[in-house]
Amino acid sequence: MLDKLRPMAYLHQPFSTMDETLFRSVSSYLMAQFLHHSDNQQHNFDLEGVRQLFNDITLTNESFALRIQSIGGRDANINALLGLDIAVKIGGMSVDSDWLEKVKPLFSGFIRREVQAP
């Protein structure tokens, strides 16, 4: 699962906002799907895959927290991981039509508009 985060790590932004993280997450996912498409592999440009990625990250974080706890990890370590997990859960819920409408104007230069006849 962590291997899917490699593109995000490549351009890591340690203090990114939720919008920046969502933008990078969706962009990374769609780039992976485009690469699948270009290799004639099964691909899916539906954003459900991004939501599933966030769910997988949550499961991984929960497993890490249990492992830290099992070796006597301190509350600060677990709390830091839980803070990250809260951001992941919010991110997974935020990838929706409202978020898409929010970022859509950023892509106006790429979106073809029909030209009205004079």
Keywords summarizing the entry:
single chain, 118 residues, mainly alpha
**What is the total number of structural domains?**
1
Low-confidence stretches: none
**Share of helix, binned:** 55-70%
- Note the run of SSEs as H and E: HHHHH
**What structural class results from the helix and strand content?**
mainly alpha
How many angstroms does the end-to-end distance come to?
A: 54 Å
Q: What count of helical segments does DSSP give?
A: 5
User: How much strand?
Assistant: under 5%
What is the 3D shape? elongated
User: Quick one: biggest sheet?
Assistant: none
The residue-averaged pLDDT reads 84
Radius of gyration: 18 Å
In total, the number of strands is: 0
Short précis:
The mean pLDDT is 84. Helix content is 64%, strand content 0%. Helix 3 runs antiparallel to helix 4.
What does this structure look like?
The chain has 118 residues and is an all-alpha fold. The protein has one domain (2-106). The chain contains five helices and no strands. The chain has helices at 6-10, 18-38, 48-70, 75-94, 97-103. The protein is elongated. The mean pLDDT is 84.
Walk me through the topology.
Layout lengths: L5 H5 L7 H21 L9 H23 L4 H20 L2 H7 L15
